[in-house]
Design a protein that fits this description.
This protein has 239 residues and is of the alpha/beta class. The chain contains 8 helices and 10 strands. Pfam families: ABC_tran.
Length: 239
């Protein structure tokens, strides 16, 4: 799988409508590794970068291509290849129960209701969620909701999975559960996280600071550099 960002940048008008705010400085990247992590402070541009990868945000300049498909001109085709998970699973669980939510994901591939329900149950069983199939999503724990959201995304078999801080709302047990599940996926995975241990499991690490990619390379070395950067920023703030 190949994701190419060619001189891509994201800029928006400031709230007063006068000046322009840069959410992500111009960058050129080719992402081919199976496991890629993105780290940085809140507001640094991590989420903006992730949203570029499946067309949730269009670049203000430059272009983004996923396996040769332009995210602006061919957005629907891109989104069929790129599954996206938000930080809060409730922001994407739109149906009352896990079973109905997975069925919704399968409506294109399984137009007949009986076949769709059977396929949805198989998906939930794969993730160990079959016992929760008809529970309200609001009665589930944070970890269960995250797994349901993941099962809905993966039900359509995307080639690439993009996750925006997937462990932020999880306790340690569910974090381990999710991490192990992600490790076993065949999809290319690109994730943003504040979990530096999780970031170190990747093959490639991007560090974003103030809308710029300031590091691109080995995860362990990158996390070390990020810690130094964060410490320097903290000292400046105290001063």
């Amino acid at each position: 799988m190949t994701i190419e960002l060619k001189a891509a940048a994201v800029r928006v008008k400031s709230p007063d409508g006068g000046s322009e705010l840069t959410l992500l400085e111009e960058l050129t990247l080719e992402l081919t590794e199976q496991r890629i992590a993105v780290i940085g402070a809140n507001g640094s541009g991590k989420s903006t970068l992730l949203r570029l990868l499946n067309g949730l945000i269009a670049p203000s300049s430059g272009s983004v291509e996923v396996n040769g498909l332009d995210t602006v001109r061919e957005g629907a085709a891109v989104r069929r290849q790129v599954g996206f998970m938000f930080t809060d699973p409730l922001s994407q669980l739109v149906m009352p129960t896990p079973l109905e939510d997975v069925e919704l994901s399968l409506r294109r591939s399984h137009p007949k209701a009986p076949e769709r329900r059977a396929a949805a149950l198989q998906v939930l069983e794969r993730f160990g969620l079959e016992s929760l199939a008809e529970h309200s999503v609001y009665s589930l724990s944070g970890g269960e909701r995250q797994l349901v959201a993941l099962s809905s995304v993966l039900a359509v078999q995307p080639k690439i999975l993009v996750l925006d801080e997937p462990t932020t709302l999880l306790d340690l047990v569910n974090t381990h559960r999710l991490v192990e599940l992600l490790a076993g996926l065949e999809q290319q995975v690109v994730l943003a996280s504040h979990d530096l241990e999780l970031a170190c499991r990747a093959e490639r690490l991007l560090v974003i600071d103030q809308a710029k990619v300031v590091y691109d390379g080995d995860p362990v070395a990158g996390v070390r550099q990020y810690r130094e950067l964060a410490l320097a920023r903290a000292k400046t703030w105290k001063a």
